Fold these 2 entries.
Entry 1:
Amino acid sequence: MARIIALQTHDVRFPTSMTLDGSDAMNPDPDYSAAYLRLLTDAGDGLEGHGFVFTIGRGNDVQVAALRALEGHLVGRDVERTLADLGGMWHELVHDSQLRWLGPEKGIMHMAIGAAVTALWDLRAKREGKPLWRLLASLTPEEIVDLVDFRYLTDALTRDEALEILRAARPGRAEREKQLLARGFPAYTTTPGWLGYDDGKLARLCREAVADGFTQIKLKVGADLEADIRRLGIAREVCGPDIRIAVDANQRWDVGDAIRWMEALRPFGIAWIEEPTSPDDVLGHAAIARAVAPIPVATGEHAANRVLFKQFLQAGALSVLQLDATRVAGVNENIAILLLAAKFGVPVCPHAGGVGLCEAVQHLSMFDYVAVSGSTDNRMIEYVDHLHEHFVTPVEVHKGRYFPPGAPGAGTEMLAASIAEYTHV
Amino acid sequence: MARIIALQTHDVRFPTSMTLDGSDAMNPDPDYSAAYLRLLTDAGDGLEGHGFVFTIGRGNDVQVAALRALEGHLVGRDVERTLADLGGMWHELVHDSQLRWLGPEKGIMHMAIGAAVTALWDLRAKREGKPLWRLLASLTPEEIVDLVDFRYLTDALTRDEALEILRAARPGRAEREKQLLARGFPAYTTTPGWLGYDDGKLARLCREAVADGFTQIKLKVGADLEADIRRLGIAREVCGPDIRIAVDANQRWDVGDAIRWMEALRPFGIAWIEEPTSPDDVLGHAAIARAVAPIPVATGEHAANRVLFKQFLQAGALSVLQLDATRVAGVNENIAILLLAAKFGVPVCPHAGGVGLCEAVQHLSMFDYVAVSGSTDNRMIEYVDHLHEHFVTPVEVHKGRYFPPGAPGAGTEMLAASIAEYTHV
């Protein structure tokens, strides 16, 4: 019988603030970082489970301390039994009554649980020799709903309704998997639009994005209206009328600001307005959505848990759901939110502007396509073109599409050399 | 010129789980704990600023790590200038863009900022020789609104509206301060109702509460309907018809459960139903409030920040606002929420079921009465009768009322001997 014998952590930080990659109206100088977790076993097969929380620098050490607080729940456990009941494991971690006080189900502790859960999924996928998306898409509807905690969701989505959604999608799974392997999954790129780039770099990167086959780009906005108008003008001119241009305010505005600002940007043809205000403000987003229609409101990268997403959907406060895979509690809560989105007919376009997020979230979107929503309509995975070289299985993006990873695992494993080189001291 | 020269932290845990003090439907065995912070200066006056985050045990070490992450913001600062602009200090801490990613404005990092902010207020109150409630109540309306960050609030409360509320309350300040000193502030007690107590202990403690002059008690419910009905029957019989009995489900239910359960408990005459479901679920609470009316819905001890409270008020989702002083970001965010409550005409009855919370929150309720809401109608401070002996200025509660502390400071200073004895190793 194999056991989990160690939980190792690493405080990994990349000095991205030096180039202003990732800069926006609220995050002027992020250092893309990972609070990184490895689960070791004595199975003798050389396989480890890897997971991480994406952060942007300071405080990554606190996030690592939160990972360490989970050691007692994980080390010593029977590997087979744990991996066979990841719904039960999720429940044990999220409902530890003392740790729960520190959220509940939000912030540093919840994200730490997410990294641990995802590391367990990584280990399971490696042991089964499958990429995570394919492992998840091979589960029965009953096995999938057993992974989900329906507490606090039943006024919007019951277990039976989730089963119906999954059963309805089942007959088409094989055909969609074939499509996915042949054609990939749509992507959009945020690379041109960071706020710290000058106009020349913006224009050049827009041109490259179109040449690379992307059909949507995204620009950061929200700090200076005049500058936003100038930058959108450049982007629209370079890209032409057929490329979709989304904008992202990164929570910069109050409700009234958002409405006024979007009136001014409306003439540029806006694909969506992302994070117009506080990520906790369901009612504020709903008010903005009504006022700026038909421009879609997108949000979710800072939404703490499934209860927030439930309300955003109930209130019609978003029409593009931007789940962040490492902010909610791992693969299981991602699945809960994919099911909620399917119930409400809202597309999920996951947040991936970070280190390792592209590698991780593609598995969830591909599972969504094959086994849950059954569609790629209006669905895109964000793409940013940096730091992929630090991962064991970097994404394969060609002509604006993600091609499915074939290597076993959840995509979350960073190269040992990169961990060593970028460990924060 | 004096500077802050050190930030010291302590992981303090009391073994309350041994007696089931504090036990409820979601927290069966809490160990009341404090992630504790001391700010030292070189002023030579012997004064220190103390603050803490209340937790219930495991994870208190992670909370301490979050306190430590604030060292760079605090150590080395000019004491006078910092204390003269605590609005600016709050803004610097909450809007540190890298730390903000770990919430934003919620969970471990936000609570750590709250402890630091409150420690600064404690230091300022000691230096001015005033208890915090009196210090706050001596500020001008303009000085008070300068402490508040109105970002994300302006669709419900603007700076000008807040000023109006404070100006309207100003003429009555002196008279209300006199009233407060003479008659104290109303309290209610949670002491009889912890879920882990047997029926005999429940009856005895109910009898004692009435004899002690309390006019409201609170019972934990939500784990077992039959047991709740039995325990409410005992409490109502012992207390008689005139004592208000509130119930507290500690987030145990989904929306439908809450509505059904409260139908069954309605005949006992319920003063309020507290935390019926997820503390993030504004829309769920609103649905429950509509269904269980006229029973008031109370919540807030786990509401992460002012944006959540804004929505609870906008949606009519609560009619008793139970702010937790150490969950939001310190004195400043408490003031923001008191102002929101005043705007909506909703009474604030702060959460105090923890260690040190009674000592801390009384200052905020008394400030609210003197300078903001101007009323004690339907306002009560929770009281629990344990662990007060560990504080330098323990609460003075007589005949069911809190009497105003006179000692300088925020009430947050724990005895050095208690810190030493209960430091977790």
Entry 2:
Amino acid sequence: MDKPATIKDVAELARVHAATASRALNPQTRDKVSPRTAARIVEAARALGYSPNSAARSLRTRTSSVVGVVIPDLRNPVFPPIVRGVEDALREAGYLALLGNTDGDAERERDLLATMRGQQLAGFILATSKRDGVPLGPDVSVVLVNRRTDAGDVASVVADSGAGVRALVNLLVERGHSRIGHLAGPQDTSTGVERYRAFLDGLSAHGLTPSGVEFCDAFSEQAGYDATRRLLAGGVSVTAIVAGNDMIALGCYGALAELGLRCPEDVSVTGFNDMPFVDKQRPALTTVRIPHYDIGYEAARLLLERIADPSSPPKRLVLPVELIERNSVARVALSDPPNARTGQN
Amino acid sequence: MDKPATIKDVAELARVHAATASRALNPQTRDKVSPRTAARIVEAARALGYSPNSAARSLRTRTSSVVGVVIPDLRNPVFPPIVRGVEDALREAGYLALLGNTDGDAERERDLLATMRGQQLAGFILATSKRDGVPLGPDVSVVLVNRRTDAGDVASVVADSGAGVRALVNLLVERGHSRIGHLAGPQDTSTGVERYRAFLDGLSAHGLTPSGVEFCDAFSEQAGYDATRRLLAGGVSVTAIVAGNDMIALGCYGALAELGLRCPEDVSVTGFNDMPFVDKQRPALTTVRIPHYDIGYEAARLLLERIADPSSPPKRLVLPVELIERNSVARVALSDPPNARTGQN
């Protein structure tokens, strides 16, 4: 095989000093070189197949160009577009993403973080954290994605849960619903507690109180199924259920079908996230769209900022959401005579 | 903060020599230590929060405990369970997964592989490769996932495309179909060409020939939509369409709906992969289930074998598939009088 290209070869081809080439090829110093020159150097490096020995650089600088991305489970459809956004933003800056799943298990998360820390990573993006803090020291650059801490001491990117849930409640009330229940997400997560509070606030703004709340121990279909069974087993009468997220809503669909209740004719259901394929469910799910890809992309951008300047204050970014009306919410028209059209044709 | 724990601290707590502790904590030498002793050492390391300095080890051994996982796009629902299987198998061996998306773009793939190679990775799992080979030298440990090369010179884990497509064709013929078209996947991929050949073989076994074949330039919904429009624009009359995979089948659903053709009443459609949520489509898709998670898991196991013994011959693993009958295939009963039951009740 050919001798591998060196930084000097790259500098020569790009007609710059070796030090300039080195700066341009290191994501952490690239902004010290003019964009046009940096582009020429990157092009030259590519043409020569130049590959910086990152292991050597890592040992010298004590960090690598690799970021740990820790999520509960990639098979939850919310995460692939978030992770894709993270990876795209990292790649643009010459960084790579080391991916790990925790299944929401604290021990698995501890192990994973310890193994990742052994790699001298540049920082972490965590989608797993609880409200009470992150299991990493203050010496580590961290951005939370789709989560935040109560103390607000960690940088984060989230969607506007409050605005989303209030929009869902307003829609239900407009459609005539007043007996509305909630399947709340886990209350040790920021999204679980923020959506629950927004549900109470939203009802309160219309002078209503909840017709039943059940708490799910996970943002999962199974937890949504179980919570729906508990909600309705108590003899609670609701015409609508606001689920903590889409997965919980799908579990609710399953439980309603088993109980012989039709959605939306008997019970309207709403979700949260607009994850892929909920538009293809029966009925298509009315939900709140969060900008999954942008959340991941912005989280990676924030992390790169923090890596460049670890002393900067932790920003908290809230991205807007959008109400997506489909077919899982019916109008309640109490004054209609029952079966008004029966017998006419 | 406390001084970080050293390998000596770990050895002392586990009552072994430092060399034994070191072997037990290195995935590549762990099997030289008895499982019980290794477990005790790992437990001691965890208790002390010991984190091996992998960057230093990497420079010494010229490889890390990190594997590159390269896929087209994580947002294609086939990949999350595969990647999750990869990550689980790697984690069990103390390895981590560096994830990258290529969008099927050759230049993006070259860049990504060059950047990853700069990290002295232990090996690669590629879901992106074409039939003509892999863009990595023979000095690199590689396993292909859901893909293989014509030459068979690279280790791979795939599902049995041939058996799956033949089962679909048999089902259609049993249901009375004889005018069957195919929306073939890209012919520079092994799955595209293997399924196309199996389609021809399957028809031939029943003395049939294809009623039209269109080739998709990607395994995507858009490509499936376009190919369906081309197939039917030519005035081809089919009662069933075998799509190259589920994404292509979803594009076919969209095109049929636009053309005012009902599925399955006018045209039956089949997919391939049984990706998440095709059971919730309208109609629920008849398809072939591949063991996504197992494919990923086995690919990582194969790669770890090759890392341990790079001179071993490249294994090719084919995993069995399962026909999943849902509602997208109708019976064609040419001899039934039309609307036979009309007027009887």
